[in-house]
Every structure is written in structure tokens, then in C-alpha cells.
Amino acid sequence: MATKRLRLLLRIWTVIFLLGAVDFFVFPYLTVKILNSTARSLGMVPYMILVAALSWIAQRGTRIQAQPVQFLLLAKAASSLTSLALFLLGGFAYPFLANFVVDGAIVLITYWFYRAARSELAFPAQ
């Protein structure tokens, strides 16, 4: 049951991250204006495609692959903590705080599901 929930969550992340990539690609200036960000909007497209790919690769097949989930957790944690640092050190720009909260929540939720399903995951041979 835990594996099914993690697989569903990874599929949901795939869709959300792909929509984020499309949003930044199709509406880069509008998205930046809405977020009131100083960051380059198109810089987010490759990252969103990467995290969508990690989510997709992890959940395909009969057993969920642990390693792409671990990389997804790492990417989102790095994004969240970098955003917190930019928020605190770079002038308290709201989009950085929002990204810290959103990506931090993604890390916590995904880790919770990952931990519950850990015994059923496929780990790389060592």
C-alpha cells in the first residue's frame, strides 16, 4: 500500500513539474511578473524537466526505484534551502520565500511517502 501511495505521489509530481516547466517556457515574463522575481525565468525550465523526469523514472516499472526518488529529494531540498538563503540574504524577495515553503513541503511529503514504502523499493545493486 505504501508503494502505491508513493507511485501515485510521483505521478502527481511528474504532472506538476511538467506544468511548471511549460509555464516558465510559455509564459516566462508573466510568471516572473506574477512572482515578482528577479531570477531568470527560463533557467527554471531545465530544472523542472529534470525533477519531472526523476519522478517519472522512479515510478515506472513493477517496483519503484529508490535512487531517482533520492535525487528528487536532494534537488528539492537544495532548491528549498537555496531559496531560503536568497530570501534571507538577498533582500527578502517573496518568490524566494514561496519557493522555500513549496519545495520544502514537497521534500517533507515525498520523504514521508518514501520512508513508508522503503522496504518495498528497488535499490541499485552494490
Write structural notes for this entry.
With 126 residues, the protein is mainly α. It has one domain. The protein is 77% helix and 0% strand. It has helices spanning 2-26, 28-35, 44-59, 66-89, 94-117. The longest helix has 25 residues, at 2-26.
Concise structural overview:
By secondary structure, the protein is mainly α. It is built from five helices and no strands. Helix content is 77%, strand content 0%.
Features:
single chain, 126 residues, mainly alpha, globular
Backbone CA Rg = 15 Å
Q: Kindly, what is the distance between the CA atoms of the first and last residues, rounded to a whole number of angstroms?
A: 27 Å
Number of strands: 0
Number of separate domains = 1
Tally of helical segments: 5
Structural class: mainly alpha
The shape, in one word, is globular
Instruction: Give the fraction of residues assigned to helices.
Output: over 70%
The largest sheet, given as strand count, sense and whether it forms a barrel, is: none
Could you report the average pLDDT, rounded to the nearest whole number?
85
In terms of DSSP E residues, the strand content is under 5%
Which segments are poorly predicted (pLDDT under 50) over 5 or more consecutive residues?
none
Order of helices and strands: HHHHH
